[in-house]
Every structure is written in structure tokens, then in C-alpha cells.
Amino acid sequence: MSEKDKLRTGGQVLVDALRNHGVDTAFCVPGESFLAVIDALYGARDDIRLVVGRQEGGVAHMAEAYGKLTGEPGICFVTRGPGATNAAIGIHTARQDSTPMIMFVGHVARDTTSREAWQEIDYRHMYGHIAKWVDQIDDARRIPEYVNRAFHIATSGRPGPVVLALPEDMLTDMVTASDTPRYQRVPYHPAPQSMSQLQAMLAEAEKPLVLLGGGAWTRGASDAIARFAENFDLPVVCGFRRQDLFDNRHPHYAGEAGLGMDPKLAARIKAADLVIAVGPRLGETTTNGYTLFDVPKPVQRLVHVHRDPNELGHVYHADLAIHAGMEEFGSAAADLPKPASTPWREWTQSACNDYQDNLKHSPVANGVDMGEVMQHLRDTLPADSIITNGAGNYTIWVQRFYQYRGVRTQLAPTSGTMGYGVPAAIAAKLVHPERTVVCFAGDGCFLMNGQELATAVQYGLNIIIVVVNNGMYGSIRMHQERHYPERVHATALNNPDFAALAQSYGATGICIERTEDFPAAFERARNAGKPALIELRTDPEVVSPRATITSLRKAAAA
Predict the structure, then answer these.
(1) Chain-centre distance of CA 123, in angstroms?
(2) How does 495-528 read in b/e, with b if 16+ C-beta sit within 10 Å?
(3) String of b and e for 397-408 (b: at least 16 CB within 10 Å)?
(4) Parallel, antiparallel, or unpaired: how do β-strands 410-411 and 236-239 relate?
(5) Is residue 276 helix, strand or coil?
(6) What is the tally of helices (H) and strands (E) in the chain?
(7) Which residues, other chains included, contact 340 with Cβ-Cβ below 8 Å and sequence gap of 6+?
(8) Helix/strand/coil for 277
(9) What's the CA gap between 101 and 433, in Å, rounded?
(10) N or C, fewer C-beta in 10 Å, the chain?
């Protein structure tokens, strides 16, 4: 009897479909609504590793980080109602970060729908705006069809999340179903006339630059863009939290367009006469609140390259819109004839010099100096180390003072969600157990998903978590001082002993209050043989690399 003719439960058909599409890892918080799937995963445990987390928001972010790191859809299973609502944060992150992801939601039985049955939610309505596609599988025979479509939608055009609801009785139906082979990626090659036009625009430029961002990048794409930048002597800027798309130590690297952007870089982007934007949506953060480029028609000549034609012209009218994948465009750009000379060599050199100057940090008098911490790590960490973080002002030190040296060595949410760093670090260590993985989290950020430290301990994932503790929601406090100076309310935090908390989970816990103690503490964490957490006590007066509470109050009073 062939697989096509064999009776299988819906849960088994689903797991077989995942295996056929190359899935080797899935994340979940178990629920009774999809026990048939868990049972089928037990039978497939030699092929598909099932990682069980402690809260659905955490496992959704693990799946998102897995998708971001590998380019394959991150797979997540959550239960209905509360589980699905908890997991919504990961779907939002995958949407804004253009990350391929598929989330399966256990659902109420088909004969109880539309009655507001126990934990019932209409997922088409709930996720309709933030997912690329939301649907419900009511017929177990059609599972292979739905899963095949989910993989293609999650990875095509602008990558993103797909949500499929699974009625629990459908998963126990015994059916025969025809499996599909592994999904196929569709290449997006730039039109030859577009590349000729790009070359002509470069020939007319005096102050060009390249701006990288978006999803669906590969090492081949990154290497090809580097060759293009070298051939045309172009400065390269990376979008918000996409710094790993270009080696930060390359002589053509000019910095990051994002939160805490170097004012010199912002001025340079405005002064450019040609911007070649490869991959980014050109969203609010990368464009500094839509101020770097006029809407809808920028002053700069704009070349916008994107995998999804719906993103071209979405906000900005480009002088040249190119529908192409990152690797396909990069290869075509790298093959353009190298010019005999480029008149902007000094422009490119000064852009890199400005970036190098921005790496210098001002000393901090009290508490742990984050600038010194980041300098130590950029000088000592292996080039292939993976750095993760969530959101908050502490991330500005990470983004400004660390240097990423290879594609997918940075896992950080462009959506600006807190609580991302710990789950992302877990996913990174699962994918690359041989590499050093360091998570940065603020005191507020850590406690949003810090329970996943238990997951790291359970699976023996030796991640290093650096908790930056200043006793407040620092980013909100900064804005509060700017707009409502000295009216401090709702931003102070009463924190636990983070080192002791880590030890209670079975991890190594270290707390330091002096900058000079960090190198030894970090080395101890690296050699711990288990997950480790280092708590850094920092001065709440220092809210960002460029601002203090005192300076903000003085500016507000002026």
C-alpha cells in the first residue's frame, strides 16, 4: 500500500507534510487541542526536533528567529484562545521583520464553531491584518495542499508569517491524502534594462550610497553586494537592525540608519544625489521618521530594489524600481562593468571615517560603562558570534558600538518588541550550537520572556545573557523627560536579583557593578558549560550614549 492510500490521522498527515518540506525543528507550548499532532511528532522525533517553551510569546519568537536565521519558515504550534493571543507578538514581529514563519493553532472542534466555544477565536479576523495568509483546515485530506501553500506564501515576495487553524477533531480524522514534494523557491531576476539604467544613473552621480535592509538575504547576496560596492567604490549603509548584511569592518561601511542614528550619517543620506536601496521597505525607523526622504518623491534620485512588487511605490516613488531578489540583484550588480574611475572616492572615505568616529564612546563615571563593555566584546568575540537583543535604550549601545562581521550574526526585531532577545538566543544556539551566542536584555525587557531561560537550561543551550539593569523602563523614561520633565511616573522598576534568579533556574548567575569586572565575568560565563546570565548594574542617569537625565531636563527647560 502506498502512502497515498494508507489511512492516517490528520495529525500524522500534517507531520508528514512538514517532514516532506524539510522541517527539522518545531517550537511549541503543548495544548490538548493539537494532541494528535504531538503524538505524530513523537513518531517523527528522530527527524523533527520539538522544542517546548514556557510561554507562547517566547516560542513564537523562537520560531521567528529561526526563520530569520535560516531563511526557512520557522514552525510554531500553539493552542487556541490564550495560546494564540500570547503568540500574536511573534506574528507581528515576523510581519514587520519580513521573516518566513508558519504558526499552527489548535482550534475548537468543527461542530462547536461560532458558538463561542471554550477558548474559541476566529483566527481569520484576529490575524487577518498582520499575517500574510490566515486560514483553517477543515478537511484532513487537504492538509498537504494547505501546508504546501503556506510554505510558498511564507517565503515568496516579501517573506512573512502564515497562520493555519487546526480543528481538534479534524486532526483525529482517519483519511487518505496525497503528499506533496518540498516547496520550491521562485527566483526574481532584475530586468536587463533596469541594470543598464542603474549603470547610467551611477555614471551621472556625484554622491551615491547604498542602503541595505529587508528580509530574504543570503551570504551569497551579501557577498555580491560587497563586490558591487567595491567595484563602484560606494559607501554602504545598513537599515535598522540589519547591520549584519555588510561587514562593519569593511572600508566602505558607513553605519546604521536607525534609532540613535549618527547625525552625520543622517545628513549624508539627505545630501546624497543617488540612493540605491536594496531590500528595505524604507519604513519609519530606517528613514528617521520619514524625514531622510521626502514623501512621496524624494529629493535624492532613488533606486528601490525589492522582492515584492507591492512594496515598490508603497510609500516612495522611485526613479527606478527593480523587482528582484537580493541574491539575483546582487549578482547582476556585481557583474556590471567596473568604471574606469569614480569621482566620489573622498565621499566614500569620509563616510567610513564618520562611522569610525562614531565608535568612540564617552566615559561613564558611575556604574558599569556600556561603551567599554561593547568595545571589549567587539575586540574579543569570534567573528561568527550571534548577538541578539529585544528593545529599549540599552540596545543603542549594542547597535552603535558592536561590529557585525557576517550575514545573520544579528537577531534583533525591527518591530521594536521587548522580550525578543532570550527566545532568539535559544533559536540561534539550536541552529548553531558551535557558535557563541550573546543576548542583551534590559531589566524590563528580560522579564517579558526571561522564563525561557528555563528552556535554555532544559535543552543544554549555553547562551550568555547580559541584563542591563538601570531600574527603569529607560526608553520611556527618556521620552518622558523630554516631554514631561521631572514628572516621573510609571517608569521605575523594582527588580529581583537577576543573578540569583538565573541560579534558581540552574544557570550561572553573575552580578557586577564595576566596568573592570566585566572581562573576567564574561570569560566565566563563556566557560560555564551551561547557560549564564551577567547582570550589569548601570547608572540610570545615563539613558543613552548621547543623553543623560540632567541634559534632557536642561534641554526641556531651555
Answers:
(1) 24
(2) beebbebbeebebbbbbbeebeebeebbeebeeb
(3) bbbbbbbbbbbb
(4) unpaired
(5) strand
(6) 20, 22
(7) none
(8) strand
(9) 22
(10) C
450-509: per-residue pLDDT in tens? 999 999 999 999 999 999 999 999 999 999 999 999 899 999 999 999 999 999 999 999
CA 262/CA 292 separation, integer angstroms: 13
Q: pTM to 2 decimals?
A: 0.96
User: Are 249 and 219 within 8 A, CB to CB?
Assistant: no
- Would you place residue 1 in the very low, low, confident or very high pLDDT band (cuts 50, 70, 90)? very low
C-alpha cell at position 535: 547582570
Residue pair 277/214 in contact (Cβ under 8 Å)? The answer is no
Q: Given a cut of 90, is residue 358 above it in pLDDT?
A: yes
In the 8-state DSSP scheme, what is residue 535?
E
Q: Which of 100, 60, 92, 87 is nearest to 76 (CA)?
A: 60
Residues 6+ apart with CB under 8 A from 501: 450, 509, 533
β-pair partners for 161: 101
Strands, E, within 183-300: which ranges?
A: 208-212, 236-239, 253-257, 274-278
At residue 283, φ and ψ (nearest 5 deg) are -80, -175
Q: Concatenated DSSP letters for 388-432? A: EE-SSTHHHHHHHH----STT-EE--TT--TT-HHHHHHHHHHH-
Q: How far apart are alpha carbons 298 and 21 in whole angstroms?
A: 42
Percent of the chain exceeding pLDDT 70 equals 99
**Mean residue pLDDT across the chain:** 96
Residue found by looking up cell 495568509 in the block = 133
Contact (Cβ atoms closer than 8 angstroms) between residue 60 and residue 91: yes
The residue ranking higher by pLDDT, 376 or 341, is 376
Report phi then psi at 93, rounded to 5: -60, -45
Q: Residues of the chain with pLDDT > 90: what percent?
A: 93
Q: What is the per-residue pLDDT across 504-551, written as a single tens digit (0 to 9) for each? A: 999 999 999 999 999 999 999 999 999 999 999 999 999 999 999 999
